[in-house]
Design goal:
alpha+beta; eight-stranded mixed sheet; single chain; 8 strands; L,D-transpeptidase catalytic domain-like
Length: about 180
């Protein structure tokens, strides 16, 4: 009896990743198991995410951000993507998006800033793929900022991200 379709897809993709990109392949274990990254950097202005291992970029992806991407997230509903040093926390394979990994926003400084202004800091900032139920053509999601403040990747890139990151991986979100 074979694997369920999603497991077969993930296994096939995992085994194909090292052959797909030389920069990833040089960090792959001989059996095709990818080693996790130790740091993620998001460059908001460039709409790029870099995955790093031992200080070297092993993968780089285009990202989409919140609808109002300039500046640091200050409150719930401002549609900004936070800036600062955070960690990847919870993982959700059953999200309304193709996979989702939570970012530790808000941290203590974010909460204090929001409280000084009488605001809720918001939360549930995620790195995720495209919506499972697309309302617009795929290209719109890939080429514009469309989230409520999250960091979005194509589904293919999200699968890489999911496989290459782990719990508590640092993520730095730069302006």
């Amino acid at each position: 009896m074979g694997h369920p379709p999603i497991i077969s897809f993930l296994l096939t993709t995992l085994l194909a990743l090292p052959a797909a990109a030389d920069s990833i392949a040089e960090y792959a274990a001989p059996a095709g198991v990818l080693l996790p990254v130790d740091h993620v950097i998001v460059h908001k202005a460039a709409r790029r995410m870099e995955l790093l291992r031992d200080g070297r970029t092993i993968a780089s992806y285009r990202v989409s951000l919140g609808l109002n991407p300039s500046g640091h997230k200050q409150r719930e509903g401002d549609f900004r993507t936070p800036e600062g040093s955070y960690r990847l926390t919870k993982r959700n394979a059953r999200s309304e998006f193709f996979l989702a990994v939570q970012v530790s926003y808000p941290e203590a400084g974010d909460i204090a800033m929001a409280q000084r202004n009488g605001w809720s800091p918001g939360g549930l900032i995620m790195v995720h793929g495209l919506p499972n139920a697309l309302k617009y053509p795929r290209e719109r999601y890939l080429n514009t900022d469309w989230t409520d403040g999250c960091i979005a990747l194509s589904n293919e890139d999200m699968l890489d991200f999911w496989l290459l990151t782990g719990a508590d991986t640092p993520i730095e979100i730069q302006p």
